[in-house]
Design a protein that fits this description.
Layout lengths: L4 H10 L3 H26 L5 E5 L9 H15 L3 E4 L5 H11 L4 E6 L16 E4 L2 H11 L3 E3 L4 H15 L8 E4 L1 H18 L12 E3 L2 H14 L7
Parallel strand pairs: 1-2, 1-5, 2-3, 3-4, 5-6, 6-7
InterPro entries: LOG (IPR005269), LOG_fam (IPR031100), LOG_family_nucleotidases (IPR052341)
Family: Belongs to the LOG family.
Protein name: Cytokinin riboside 5'-monophosphate phosphoribohydrolase
């Protein structure tokens, strides 16, 4: 029985076969390239979109699920498509709002051992499957004109802080980032302000302007709309 690529790599490490590891790494480049090409070709055609982030574990009865649905509806009312991570929870809710409103509903799904499976509200021709987190994150950054971030876990934090870092360092063009849920994000924002900024001086005061904290779908969508009343829609990088 033939081994999978993952099993071959594990076997090579166990047997300290360094040459085999180098060969496997080299061939992996072509799989990485293929994921980039597929993502660029499909997403380049979708038009202006906003990404909605949040936990895969959020139940339909949770207020943030309903807020995400409403965000999807409001964004598509104004001609924006909705991009999510393609899974359940908040991601499903964002896609659901877009789908119910007849808007573009995009899912960037990732192959994970638990939690992640694509939801039924993604347009059939706008579902992409990824093996690599870093490629998936490039797609979010490149093809989103804004981020709406609802309560989530480590993955949500990862996307949020990568976006802020890339904007802060000038690696991508600035776009609006909205955190929904003052109760959820308040403690983190206070720590950023009181500890990261005022106590340790690890950021500049103006970095706090790179995101906005709101409580409702209407406020989140309006922040996106106001930003583009002022700035022209353009590629992020």
């Amino acid at each position: 029985m033939s081994m999978t690529s993952e099993e071959k790599i594990r076997s090579a490490f166990e047997n300290k076969n360094w040459q085999e590891i180098k060969v496997t790494d080299s061939w992996q480049i072509f799989k990485i390239m293929a994921e980039f090409v597929d993502g660029f070709e499909k997403l380049a055609k979708i038009g202006p979109c906003v990404s909605i982030f949040g936990s895969a574990r959020t139940a339909e009865t949770n207020k943030y699920y309903e807020i995400a649905v409403e965000c999807g509806k409001l964004l598509t009312d104004r001609g924006y498509g909705v991009i999510t991570g393609g899974g359940p929870g908040i991601m499903e809710a964002g896609n659901k709002g877009a789908h119910m409103n007849g808007g573009k509903s995009v899912g960037l799904n990732i192959d994970l051992p638990f939690e992640q499976f694509h939801n039924k509200y993604i347009d059939h021709n706008k579902l992409l499957e990824f093996d690599y987190f870093f490629i998936r994150k490039v797609m979010f950054m490149k093809y989103s004109q804004g981020f709406i971030v609802l309560p989530g876990g480590m993955g949500t934090m990862d996307e949020l802080f990568e976006a802020i870092t890339l904007i802060q360092t000038g690696k991508i063009a600035r776009f609006p980032i909205v955190l929904v849920g003052k109760d959820y994000w308040g403690g983190l924002v206070d720590w950023i302000k009181n500890t990261m900024l005022e106590k340790e001086h690890n950021i500049h005061a103006e970095d706090l302007n790179l995101f906005r904290v709101v409580d409702t779908a209407e406020e989140a969508a309006e922040h996106i709309f106001r930003f583009y009343d002022k700035y022209v829609l353009k590629p992020n990088f």
